[in-house]
Each structure stands twice: as structure tokens, then as C-alpha cells.
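In response to a reviewer's request, we include the raw inputs and outputs for one of the modeled complexes. The four entities were modeled together in a single run.
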Amino acid sequence: MEKSDNRGLKKNLRFAVLASDVVLFSINEESLCVRLISVNRPPYFVNKPGLPGGLIHPQETAEKSTRRYLKEKTGISPQKAYMEQLYTFSAVDRDPRGRVVAVAYMALVPWNALSGSEKNKNEYSWWSMADKTHALAYDHDKILELALNRLRSRIRYTTLISKLMPEEFTLTELEKAYESILKTDLDKRNFRKKISKLGILKELPRKRAGGRSRPAKLYKFSKNKVSEVEVL
Amino acid sequence: MEKSDNRGLKKNLRFAVLASDVVLFSINEESLCVRLISVNRPPYFVNKPGLPGGLIHPQETAEKSTRRYLKEKTGISPQKAYMEQLYTFSAVDRDPRGRVVAVAYMALVPWNALSGSEKNKNEYSWWSMADKTHALAYDHDKILELALNRLRSRIRYTTLISKLMPEEFTLTELEKAYESILKTDLDKRNFRKKISKLGILKELPRKRAGGRSRPAKLYKFSKNKVSEVEVL
DNA sequence: CCAAAAGTGTTTTTCCTACACCCATGT
DNA sequence: ACATGGGTGTAGGAAAAACACTTTTGG
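The model returned the following C-alpha cells for the whole complex.
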């Protein structure tokens, strides 16, 4: 995995050099997780967790590059993930090996869209955002913090959360998704009223059976596109 | 002015090269304006309007670079302007002369903070956003459009508009500022109720005299920092 | 005294919040 | 029959929207 990280930098380049980094979120077992990898850059970083990323090639856009490194460093098929540009980090000393400016992306994927190997819970794979043990390589703590804040604010006024949900889901599952990201409890009745008034969901003729209780109606988002509506 | 534009690119660089561009807004005579410059890059662009910008030096951050080009290309003192990063544009063909990735910034300055020469209304200086004649060099039309959208949405839920207002202003002036950016009419009474409930302004002991009507109370923003509050 | 912009209150409607019980199913 | 989560309604308060007249100044 680290072999494909070609941040082998010459110092004293004529200009700043460009990289991409990606914060990939998913929700597993009602808990928001981020996909990290192991960074090995002695003497600076020895087996430290970090975000997937690498240098942007001359013939690819920042987003293409981000998708490529997502695939190369985590094995996750990039077409499964929804992506939004986050911010460009350009502090002069953010990479100890030279001048690297990073375009950071936030990526979202529904947990159920991942294959078995993509779900892999190795040492440095999916970390729960509830665990407060982040001490990431480079300035990746800062990038992760920004990504989390951006996600939290964007699910309030857009339908962005759709990109973390499976194709079909129950209202309780949707509510739990909001709660896990926002770290708040929502009122079940008010939440349902709000969502149904917005008209962003389509009720399906199926129900989720199999639980040891009353089956729940299934819904899906009526539009695939993320749109701006005041959700919460 | 164009002499300091050192976008003299080698093709086939090993990596993408980084530039900064800035969309500087101000409000003059109740109308939102943007500061453009003349771009001369034969054979691609001959005396076309464009955004101030240029290559990022190896030892400066993107924001520093943006401030430097603002000064070099428009003569405007960069410490007068408030700046926020907008987006990074990385389309492979966005610059016909080679691979240039641009970090775009939005900058805001109160019109009254500008010196006489900075206000200069030359051929390519301050353009009113009401004039629909933008046909800018590079992908600068796209950047400008994004900046305008960002400005419009950010003044709704932050106190960002403070960075376009003079130190002291009347409530009508503030309302006109919102109206010129949002292109809507606001109800005077509801606007004043909303603003005063938010408590973001401080009433000054002075009034604006000199008009041919009743003098208006003067206000200033109580905090210098842009904060997040639901304004409209 | 007239023109011009400043300033101010009330009513209606919509939205948000708080809150508790019955329902359908599996075991 | 019981345990489990699914599903629903109402009342009170806050915020938003609609709407028109009086006040203060300069000319």
C-alpha cells in the first residue's frame, strides 16, 4: 500500500507541488466511521494513521486523483463514493519533506455498498469517530476535523445524508444516521413530521421484516442528486 | 500590471502547477461590484477581463499569494480585504498554456476603505455585477459565479456582510447591502426586528446628518469577527 | 408646508417543541 | 402473553410574514 505513495519529493522545486487527500466516511452499526491507512515515512512518520492521498498527476483533476488514491490505498471502488471538495491546505510546513499543497476531499459511501474486503477492519482501516484517539500523520487531524464539521453542517441544509444511506431504509435508520453524525437525540415524532413535510423521500411498497418487532416501512430518496433544503 | 504575471509555463512539468485567483467584491452606490483586470496572453487572450491572480511561490501560502497578487495587479492594499478560500479549480484544460490548478479566494472590502486610486473606474477595474456582460479569460466566469453564490449563501447565516460595510452605517444602508447582493426586496420593519433581535449591532451615539431628510441612527457591528448566526 | 427618508406595532400564519400511548410482529 | 421497536396527534409558544402611518429633518 505504501509502495504506491510516490511523495518522493525534491526539495527546492520551482513551485509548490500538489497532492490530494480524502476523508472517507461511512456509517456502520449506527456509528460514523472514517477510513484511515498506515503512513510510513521514516524518520517523520512511522506506522502512523493518516488519510489516503498522494500527488496529483499532470493529466488528472484533483477529484480524479482523489478517486485514484482511494482505490490504490484502500481498495475501495471509487465510483461507489460520493465526493465533495473540502478545502485546500497550503501551510508551508505541512509536509516535513517539502512544499506540498493538498486539496482535501470528503467522500461518503453507504456501508452496505462495500464489499467484504472493503469493510475490512484491520489495524488502520475503519475508525469510529466516537473514539477520540486520532493522532494522524501530517496535518490530517486538522483535515479530519474540518471534514466532520462540514459534514455536520451540510446534512442540516442539504440532502447530503442520502449518500451515507443504503438504497432502502427505514425512518428510524435515517434518524439514527442523523443522530450519530450530530451527536444529538432527535424527537421521533417531530423528525418524521419534518422529513415527510419536505417530501424528499418516496415510500416503498415493501417493509423491513425479520426484526423481532413490527415491520417498518421502507423509503428511498426521491432524487439522486444532493439538493439544498432546510432539513434540521 | 501584466508584466508581473509570471505564468510563463513550461509544458510537460512533472506535476501540476499552482496558482491563486481572487474575486474581490465591494459595494458602491448600492451595487455589488467585482474588481477585474486586463489579461493579455496572445494568442489565447487579448485584452480580456479576468480575475487578479498568478502562480503561488514555493514559500508562501495560497492566501499570502492571493494577497500579493491583489496588491501587484490592482494596487489594493491587501490588509484592507477580508478573505475566504472558495474552491480549487483543477480541470486539466482550464489554462490553455499548460496544467495550472487554481486556488480561488473571495475577498471583500468596504468601498469607503479604498483610496482614490484604488477606486479607479478604468476600463477593467470595478464592474457592476448587475451588468451581465461577463466574458472573462480562462475559467474565470465559473469562478466568479461560484463566488457570487457563496457570498449570497454566506450572508444568510453569518455576519459576513460586515466585511462589505463601512465602520459606521445606518440600518437602511445595511438593508440595501443585503438587497443588492440577494437581488430581493426586504421588508423594512421585519428586517429591523430581525437584526435587532440578533444583537449583532451596536447603536452609536451619532446620527448621519446631511441628507435632505430625517437623520438616521448610526450602527456598527459589535464583533469584528465573522460569526455564524441565522440572519435571513 | 412640502418632499424625503426614518422609524415604529399589530395581526395572522406558520413552524418548532414537548410530550405519551397504541400497534404489529416474533418468540 | 409479552417483549420489541413502529407508528401516530395535539396543544402551546416562538418566529416569520404581511401590512400603513407618523416623525424628523432640509429646502
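As requested, we also summarize the result in words. DSSP finds four helices and ten strands in chain A. The domain at 158-221 of chain A is CATH 1.10.10.10 (Arc Repressor Mutant, subunit A).
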